[in-house]
Amino acid sequence: MQVTKLSEMNVLYYFVVPFLIPVAVGVTIVIVSWCFIRKDISKYLSLKPADLTADPAKGERSSLLQFRLQAHERLIVFTDRLNPSNLFLRLHQPGITARELQSLILNEVRMEYQHNVTQQLYVSSENWTILSRLKEDTLAMINNAIAGLPAEASGVDLSRKVLEHMADIKENPYDLTVELIKKDIHQLF
User: For residue 170, what are the CA distances in angstroms to 92, 166, 175?
Assistant: First the structure.
């Protein structure tokens, strides 16, 4: 009788226990995995058939539209920052000479332009050309204004001369550029 019990324990120990341990580990892995992915599975099962066959190109078009809108926004900000009245407010310092202010403005405009140069990928060529020309015209306006001032002129003198010139222009080119950018945005829809 004792031999039978011993052989039953040997069978249990050598054949059943080694089988139960991997099964227990497998069940544990399945339970833990289920806890992690059950939300994803239920989300997938709740999708409508149209969602499963969605056009991947539609998502790409949506991303491209987002990039284009952001580019237009940045170019509107660039145009606003390029406007001489805003440049003078932002860069003027008490006691600055006209030459120092000119140097600050030229550097600021060039840096702003370089910061936004990649936006030309997302806007029309016409708008980018107009924006580039506006930048060049702004630099020329500052350089022409300084040329007509005495060497000891102050930053205020430069500001006054440029703003007087801007007042003589019938239509503000900065406002016109913003309107063109807005029209380009409206064509996207």
Answer: 26, 9, 12
**Residue that is written with structure tokens 């440049």 in the block:** 87
Residue with token string 């102050």: 154
| Domain limits, the chain | 2-51, 55-187
CA distances from 151 to 53, 65, 99, 110, 148 (A): 71, 50, 8, 24, 9
Residue with tokens 């949506």: 62
Contact 139, 106 (CB under 8 A): yes
Length of the chain in terms of residues written: 189
- Read off the pLDDT of each residue in 109-132 and give the average, rounded to a whole number: 92
What is the pLDDT of the chain when averaged over all its residues? 83
**DSSP state, residue 149:** S
On whether the CB atoms of residues 174 and 82 are closer than 8 A, the answer is yes
The pTM of this model reads 0.66
Which three-class secondary structure state does DSSP give residue 130?
helix
The rounded distance, in Å, linking the Cα atoms of 96 and 8 is: 101
Picking from 174, 181, 182, the residue whose alpha carbon sits closest to that of residue 86 is 174
* CA-to-CA dists, residue 53 to 38, 47, 176, angstroms: 22, 10, 44
Neighbour tally for 82: CB within 10 Å: 25
